[in-house]
Amino acid sequence: xxxxxxxSKTYVLHTQGGISIxxxxxxxxxxxxGECVTLHGPSGSGKSTLLRCLYGNCKADAGAIMVRHxxxxxxxxxxQPRAIxxxxxxxxxxxxxxxxxIPRVSALDVxxxxxxxxxxxxxxxxxRAADLLARLRIPERLWHLAPATFSGGEQQRVNIARGFAxxxxxxxxxxxxxxxxxxxxxVVVQLIEEAKARGVALxxxxxxxxxxxxxxxxxxxxxxxxxx
Amino acid sequence: MNDHPxxxxxxxxxxxxxxxxxxxxxFELWPxxxIGIVGESGSGKSTLLSCLSTRxxxxxxxVEYDTTDQGLVDVYGLSxxxxxxxxxxxxxxxxxxxxxxxxxxxxxxxxxxERLMAVGARHYGRIREQAGTWLDKVEIDPTRMDDQPATFSGGMLQRLQIARNLVTHPRLVFMDEPTGGLDVSVxxxxxxxxxxxxxxxxxxxIVVTHDLAVARLLAHRLMVMKxxxxxxxxxxxxxxxxxxxxxxxxxxxxxxxx
Lengths: 228, 258
Fold this sequence. Notes:
The complex is a heterodimer of chains A (228) and B (258).
Chain A: E1 2-13, E2 19-31, E3 36-40, H1 47-55, E4 62-69, E5 72-75, H2 81-90, E6 92-95, H3 107-117, H4 122-135, H5 152-165, E7 170-174, H6 182-198, E8 201-205, H7 209-215, E9 218-221
Parallel strand pairs in A: 3-8, 3-9, 6-7, 7-8
Antiparallel strand pairs in A: 1-2, 1-4, 4-5
Helix pairs in contact in A: 3-4, 3-5, 4-5
Chain B: E1 7-16, E2 19-29, E3 34-38, H1 45-52, E4 60-67, E5 71-74, H2 80-89, E6 91-94, H3 98-101, H4 108-118, H5 124-137, H6 154-166, E7 172-176, H7 184-201, E8 204-208, H8 212-218, E9 221-226, E10 229-235, H9 236-241, H10 246-254
Parallel strand pairs in B: 3-8, 3-9, 6-7, 7-8
Antiparallel strand pairs in B: 1-2, 1-4, 4-5, 9-10
Helix pairs in contact in B: 4-5, 4-6, 5-6
């Protein structure tokens, strides 16, 4: 589902004297349907950057990121923005810890939105959203409120629900369980297992050792690049 | 996906004498896409928007629009009546100051109905009904239909301007700082409304803004302008989260986090 070849990324900070921070060189990664590959390594080893490159949120300097999109593959590293938008709409989801709350949109609709975007009718989309919000223990009285006023943990769980609401064949998970309590962590682990069983290809970064052990089909170890 | 763009811009340049308005701008806008143009004051954003929307003839370059009857045509090659027709039917222009886009001397309902009449609507009852529907869509109480815009707040005026533009179901909307000059709670309401209308109607839009948060919420793609030139161009979240050009990095790092 995902084939990363010879991917390199360096951040150049022009506002700080133009210093270069190499993140990784020649990275390789392949992910099959139904497996959860975990990126593991010390802080600064480029786990999140690699994940963001897969999503097209970070621009790689060299290499290819072939992502399965329908019957074909799209190279996210070089594709046009509108092609990446289409990949994100139909093929690839991203779950981060941080919800970008939109003023006045209810939690239920925030979660239902990715399904709506792929053509699911309002009612089934909301039903699926309600199911996920309930599983992630968001009290029902909050469903019709905009999440901007929710606590950090609630916002995070709304965002997780949103990520798992869609039927994307590829899911990227950026520390989705950070700062969750044990009960909610267990729900996320369960959601990941269900996604694997459905044949979803997952790539994740998990801080929590227990979660990592529980969900990983494979662990890929990353090391920080040494500055040249 | 459609196989040709709605708007194709090539080498667009506008000079004010020896001074550069915008220089060598090229891009394509696809159906359903929203492009944000960001940059500081004086970077050429508004000049570019004027040149795109036939309000200012560029010094050089071509702007082609996909007309429903003839396909892609050079908008500056069209006769003036056809340009005006395009402005009234296929296009909408939302000005930063709603007073520039509204007729302040006639009622709110007439402001919306007037656009309908310009495209041939004649039945008074139906025009009034549609005007009412649109006031409702932009969250203006339809009982205010016969009131003068001068009695409206700034946020209401901006929403009225949007209703006036969208009532004819344009395919392309140009917006110049649509949330500029509004206080933040009013801005949030307008943004949510714009976002919903753009998605529901499948509109394409070009939005000029200096507010990166507005750009993130509305635009699929961003063009960053500096000194009249596009210095960076890409997916909105990529440009904002992983900016490459020194100027974009400065712009993104200058934003105060509330």
